Amino acid sequence: MSIRKLYLELTDRCNLNCAICYRRSWRNSTGDMAEETYQRLLQNISELDELKEVVLGGIGEPTVSALFCTAVKALSPYDLTITTNGIIEDTEKVEIMARYAGKLVFSIDGLADRFSKIRGSSLEQVCQTIRAVQALKRKLNRALPEIYIQFVLSAENCADLPGVMKLAAELNARALIVSNLIPMTQESSQAILYSRYRNDEMKDYLNRACKDSLRMGLQVMLPHCEVKTERRCSYAESDAVFICASGEVSPCHRLSHSYDEFVFGRKKAIQPYSFGNINEQRLKALWDSKAYCQFREMVICNRYPSCIDCDLADGCDFARRSDMDCDGNTPACGDCLWSRRIAICL
Questions:
Q1: Which of 21, 96, 123, 142 could link 115 by a cystine bridge, Cβ 3.0 to 4.6 Å?
Q2: How far apart are CA 287 and CA 342, in angstroms?
Q3: Paired residues of 118 in beta bridges
């Protein structure tokens, strides 16, 4: 089994300070990826014969990195996805994305007023970036990059979803990705719309959104709104790896940094987990290490506890941290809402 997908965090800095961002409760920061680390990364990638897809994103905004333009060009032979907030002042960066990327994912979590409250920025500026990319595609006679819109759903912005769907259709987006909110504070945990058990109200809401999208000719990727038994790790099943700006090799976004999250109102301290650093070891060797192989087997085979629907979770010390679960597995994935498709992303 070889690496087929690579998530790359060029920086954990951002030009925004969004109300719903992980950075709100961060306990560590690296900044930008060093040039030496980046060069080591390129050397490591050249050894990955089965690598097909690269995603530039992570927790930071990739376009603020000094390496952004260089990295996009260097990684363009792969199926290249860039996740961005779309607040980009440099027209050269917009043109480079239009020339070299395969997919662009823009975050739009509401219409103008709601967007401004969440992102502290202008929705129109994001729309201008998307329109500029579409215009450059026509000029270059390119079908790519495909445009995706990401919408993080909560009680605070659910009324804006129909309007954002209409906007996505007007912007000729390939699809709208709707994900549920992962709260970073006790206060925001009151705004979630998903539940542990039967949730007919949200099912009806999402069904209406699906029907509306069909009338608009827009593909919509919708999350689950209640906990289901099935668990699937998209990272492990797609043979994906996450490289932090520091060079640390993590299993996924969620376990790449230190912060707090709230799972159905229960506070959980997320600890960063690394299988090693590319500044010290080859990426392929880290991927093939016993620890990483055992971890992938554990999550693919579902051989780990489920804290979400455990009656003892509220009084369990293991459920308060991500470094180990009650079966001795490390890191702990028992509270992962991505594996339940309550939270989704590309």
A1: 123
A2: 27
A3: none
3-state class (DSSP) for residue 90: coil
Q: Residues, the chain, total?
A: 346
Q: Is 282 exposed, middle or buried (0-12, 13-18, 19+ CB in 10 A)?
A: middle
* Cα 295 from Cα 161, distance rounded (Å): 37
Distances (CA, A) of 49 to 3, 5, 82, 236: 8, 11, 22, 18
The residue with tokens 């289901």 is 228
Phi and psi torsions of 344, nearest 5°? -140, 155
What would the two tokens of residue 37 be?
A: 């680390």
d(CA 295, CA 251): 9
- 75, two tokens: 């990684």
Q: What is the pLDDT of residues 245-293, one digit of tens each?
A: 999 999 999 999 999 999 999 999 999 999 999 999 999 999 999 999 9
Matching residue, tokens 């759903």: 153
- Count each helix (H run) and each strand (E run) in the chain, helices first: 10, 11
pTM equals: 0.96
CB-based burial of residue 328 (10 Å sphere; 0-12 exposed, 13-18 middle, 19+ buried)?
A: exposed
